[in-house]
């Protein structure tokens, strides 16, 4: 599928580990889609994360939901799963499989890469990458292995290096600090708990949308 930077505006990332006990990921995603998220990434990580056929079954269910709303469905890190279910794209980190190793299989797909700082930018081959995820912006409760926050200024620094290359900010973004991200020049925001643990997903998404029209 053809990728547009506008699809990064409200980029929801989620797995079963991010869902409150009394809810399901299917319900949370449906609410987020109804509210107007522009992209979804299935990120199943952690000690209690699903694997194997259970993970694939859930991925297909969430993919079908995204298809209903014409929202791109991205798989985090798991290249083989993304290929098997024909996901819209794949997102990998600096320590995951190198993009060049699988890019031939994703020529008509979306490829995202995490780039946390200028050093990672300098060593990254972006030839086949459609967008980068920059962060963490702030302290984040959703990733136990997250690096130290780089702040919105990193968006500005990367903009000077990369021009209009699509980039989405991630890490600790809330309704209170989203304005700093928009002002720094990001194409959008990636959020996990801000949506998955919101008391009113519709209000949260619509508040974010004010900054990325």
TrEMBL record:
- Similarity comment: Belongs to the thiamine-phosphate synthase family.
The record's listing under Pfam families reads: TMP-TENI
- Describe its function: Condenses 4-methyl-5-(beta-hydroxyethyl)thiazole monophosphate (THZ-P) and 2-methyl-4-amino-5-hydroxymethyl pyrimidine pyrophosphate (HMP-PP) to form thiamine monophosphate (TMP).
Q: Which GO terms describe its biological process?
A: thiamine biosynthetic process; thiamine diphosphate biosynthetic process
Q: What keywords are assigned to this protein?
A: Magnesium, Metal-binding, Thiamine biosynthesis, Transferase
User: Which superkingdom does the taxonomy of this entry point to?
Assistant: Bacteria
Question: GO molecular function of the protein, one example?
Answer: thiamine-phosphate diphosphorylase activity
What note does UniProt attach to the cofactor annotation? Binds 1 Mg(2+) ion per subunit.
- Give the organism the record lists: Staphylococcus warneri
Q: Which amino acids does the record list as binding Mg(2+)?
A: 77, 96
This protein's cofactor list reads: Mg(2+)
UniProt-recorded name of the protein:
Thiamine-phosphate synthase
Q: Name the positions where 4-amino-2-methyl-5-(diphosphooxymethyl)pyrimidine binds.
A: 41-45, 76, 114, 143
Keyword Transferase listed: yes
Q: Which residues bind 2-[(2R,5Z)-2-carboxy-4-methylthiazol-5(2H)-ylidene]ethyl phosphate?
A: 140-142, 172, 192-193
Q: Which residues form the Thiamine phosphate synthase/TenI domain?
A: 10-195
Q: Which reaction is recorded as catalysed by this protein? A: 2-[(2R,5Z)-2-carboxy-4-methylthiazol-5(2H)-ylidene]ethyl phosphate + 4-amino-2-methyl-5-(diphosphooxymethyl)pyrimidine + 2 H(+) = thiamine phosphate + CO2 + diphosphate; 4-methyl-5-(2-phosphooxyethyl)-thiazole + 4-amino-2-methyl-5-(diphosphooxymethyl)pyrimidine + H(+) = thiamine phosphate + diphosphate; 2-(2-carboxy-4-methylthiazol-5-yl)ethyl phosphate + 4-amino-2-methyl-5-(diphosphooxymethyl)pyrimidine + 2 H(+) = thiamine phosphate + CO2 + diphosphate
Q: Does the keyword Metal-binding apply?
A: yes
What EC number(s) does the entry state?
A: 2.5.1.3
Tell me the pathway: Cofactor biosynthesis; thiamine diphosphate biosynthesis; thiamine phosphate from 4-amino-2-methyl-5-diphosphomethylpyrimidine and 4-methyl-5-(2-phosphoethyl)-thiazole: step 1/1
Database matches in NCBIfam families: thiE
The Gene Ontology CC terms held by the record are: cytoplasm
């Amino acid at each position: 599928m053809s990728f547009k930077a506008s699809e990064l505006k409200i980029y929801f990332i989620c797995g079963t580990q991010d869902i409150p006990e009394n809810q399901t990921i299917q319900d949370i995603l449906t609410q987020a889609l109804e509210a107007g998220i522009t992209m979804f990434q299935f990120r199943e990580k952690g000690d209690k994360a699903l694997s194997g056929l259970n993970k694939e079954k859930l991925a297909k269910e969430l993919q079908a939901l995204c298809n209903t709303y014409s929202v791109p469905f991205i798989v985090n890190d798991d290249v083989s799963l993304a290929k098997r279910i024909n996901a819209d794209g794949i997102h990998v980190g600096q320590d995951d499989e190198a993009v060049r190793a699988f890019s031939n299989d994703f020529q008509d797909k979306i490829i995202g890469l995490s780039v946390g700082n200028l050093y990672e930018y300098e060593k990254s081959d972006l030839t086949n990458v459609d967008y980068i995820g920059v962060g963490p912006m702030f302290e984040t409760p959703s990733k136990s292995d997250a690096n130290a926050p780089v702040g919105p200024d990193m968006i500005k620094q990367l903009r000077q290096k990369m021009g209009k290359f699509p980039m989405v900010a991630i890490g600790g973004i809330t309704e209170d600090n989203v304005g700093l991200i928009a002002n720094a020049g990001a194409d959008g925001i990636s959020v996990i708990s801000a949506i998955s643990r919101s008391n009113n997903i519709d209000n949260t998404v619509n508040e974010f949308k004010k900054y990325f029209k």
